[in-house]
Amino acid sequence: MHVSQNWIDIAYLIAAVLFVVGIKGLTKPKTAVRGNLLAAAGMGVAAVVTLLNEHIVTYEIIIAGVVVGGLIGAIMAKKVQMTSMPQMIALLNGFGGGASFAVASAEFFRGSADNTVSIIATGAAVLIGAVTLTGSLVAFAKLQELIDGKPMGFPGMKVVNAILFVGSLVGIGYLVVNPGNETVFWGLVAAAMLLGLLLVLPIGGADMPVVIALLNSYSGVAASAAGFVMGNSALIITGSLVGASGLILTSIMCKAMNRSLTNVLFGVMAEAGEAMDEDEVYAGKVKSTSAEEVAMLLETAQRVVIVPGFGLAMAQAQHAVRDMADTMEAMGIEVEYAIHPVAGRMPGHMNVLLAEAEVPYEQLKDMDQINPTFEQTDVAIVLGANDVTNPMAREDKGSPIYGMPILNVDKAKTVVVVKRSLSSGFAGLPNPLFAKDNTLMLFGDGKGAVLDITTALKEG
Amino acid sequence: MDFVAQLTLFVLAIFLGVELITKVPPTLHTPLMSGSNAISGITVVGALIAAGSDSGLLINVLGFAAVVLATINVIGGFMVTNRMLAMFKRK
Coiled coil located at which positions (chain A) (predicted)? Predict the structure, then answer.
């Protein structure tokens, strides 16, 4: 059965509209599930109508591919743990880029890229798609700890990257003049794949949230480029939507870490200023406390803010924290959670981890919402967070983290920091918060401490 | 479709994307990423055409790879997004 191209294009338009309405649904938790289903329906429309395309003459390979891909995708989606979500997203980014890369390659070998625009678009889809594929695989390996999360590189790496990039562009230019040159095409593929590896290897584990968001954007741009190759409006529109989405998330993450994108991609951490002496910061000023004391403090509190960090999720302590919060709420205490944008390992990660532990999303407050309320907060409990609470970011112009947006927990009447020791966080800096007059340190394992506080609350 | 029409779509869609995405609250940023990932699986459209065109072994292999990868993206992306959003919805 063959349908006129106009009807197929109208169906693609419907799919694109469903994607837009679907993303719009994601702006509110209440409408988000429906939004996701609408977007999925859009995908269904686009896929079904494509099967009517006159170029499709055989279905065996399609069926095999859909069955294999569908099974792998479904198993991944069912099995993945919420703490491992960044890895899964990294893989999906890579597969998206890889798919666009494979589609553009197939178009190249079919000889359908026959004018300047479609050849450039093919080259762009191959370049961006292959970079996304290998770059995402490195990001996945780092997050999954298959390879060391530390930045890896060699002298002259930037020069090599520049040569690979410029070489790829020259290769695309050559293909415009001499369409169909397969040697140059494979050279382009190899250069792009190597470039993807070399771009992500030197980026440290702590910066992965930025990298994942950026690769998300790339996968969209690659899809868009594939759309230019095929003259398909659905691909162009959706690809650019995703590209824009990834870019916005990238810039949010950069802002939260007080770093520019160039700095994350090519640079190292800011030069440490005057190294602060840990002894000078902490000596004689750190007060340690016990779970029972904290419980007594909480009993008289009206408002408590919990500040979770990724350490909490690694210890699988979210449920214990929710129990503690429930106990407090039953006593009439107002409880909220302060979520720093980089509290998890990707944008919004901590919110998902807490939602999994059935913390109601109304209690999850982002930085801008919660910061003005710390002055009316009786107790702030810091659990596995460090650098994002460091007041030096606000006060000490010489500090390497100066200017980084932080949670102003030190403005609360009392701050309880649950931590194993006084060791420093990712930034490698001492945290004067621990030595403040209104701070109490509860040393120990995070989950154990939370359970102890809950028990003491229930007994008290 | 001519190039200028394509470019027009591309540029307008980027502006639309920026408008839409800036309204998504930080709480939903992870589902937004997995959802947009699923949507970028729209490459499946191109993958289906490549895989079904029956124009030689190399193209068949590339088409098959493209269909597998894009389908993982679509199915995996939408399912995991749904799983996460269901956690936000309850209560």
Answer: none
Chain A positions touching B11 (Cβ under 8 A) are: 240
Same domain membership, residue A282 and residue A406: yes
Candidate from A26-35, A139-148, A269-278, A448-457 with smallest mean pLDDT: A269-278
Contacts of A85 in chain B (CB under 8 A): 30, 34, 80, 84
Number of domains in chain B: 1
A352 and A211: one domain? Answer: no
Q: How far apart are CA A203 and CA A191, in angstroms?
A: 19
The residue range of the domain holding B39 is 26-87
- Give the containing element (helix H, strand E) for A121: helix A116-143
Q: Which two tokens stand for residue A310?
A: 């990724």
Q: What is the mean pLDDT of chain A?
A: 90
- Rounding to the nearest 10 degrees, give the CA dihedral for residues A140, B82, A256, A275: -50
Centre a 10 Å sphere on the Cβ of residue A239 and count the other Cβ atoms it contains.
32
User: How open is the CA angle A20-A74-A125, to the nearest 5 degrees?
Assistant: 55
User: Does A102 contact B42 at a Cβ distance shorter than 8 Å?
Assistant: no
Do the interacting molecules here have an ipTM over 0.90? yes
Find how far residue B14's CA is from the centre of its chain: 15
pLDDT tens digits, one per residue of A394-407: 888 888 888 889 99
Q: Is the same domain home to A47 and A107?
A: no
Residues A137 and A39 occupy one common structural domain: no
Smallest Cβ distance to B71: which of A70, A235, A241?
A70
Same structural domain, A73 and A94: no
CA atoms within 13 A on the CB side of A94: 20
Which residues, 6+ apart, have CB-to-CB distance to A362 below 8 Å? Answer: none
Domain with A60 in it: 1-79
Residues of chain A positioned with their CB less than 8 A from the CB of B33? 89, 212-213, 216, 245-246, 249, 346-348
b/e sequence A249-272, b meaning 16+ C-beta within 10 Å: bbebbbebbbbeeebbbeeebbee
Q: What is the mean pLDDT of residues A63-91?
A: 95
Residue B19 resides in a domain:
no
Tell me the whole-structure pTM to 2 decimals: 0.89
CA gyration radius, chain B: 17
Is position B8 within any domain? no
Nearest Cβ partner for B78 among A24, A36, A78: A36
Chain A / chain B CB contacts < 8 angstroms: 369
Looking at the complex, report in whole angstroms how far the Cα of residue B4 sits from the nearest Cα belonging to chain A: 10
Taking each helix axis as running N to C, give the angle between helix A349-356 and helix B29-40, from 0 to 180 degrees, rounded to the nearest 10. Answer: 110
Catalytic: A387? yes
Interface test with B, best of A49, A95, A342 (most B CBs within 10 A): A95
Task: Clarify whether residues A210 and A327 are in a common domain.
Answer: no
Instruction: Quote the tokens at residue A261.
Output: 């994108």
Same domain, A356 and A313: yes
The number of folded domains in chain A is: 3
Q: In chain A, what residues touch B53 (CB-CB under 8 Å)?
A: 55-57, 106, 110
- Looking at the structure, tell me whether residues A122 and A215 fall in a common domain: yes
d(CA A426, CA A419) in angstroms, rounded, equals: 15
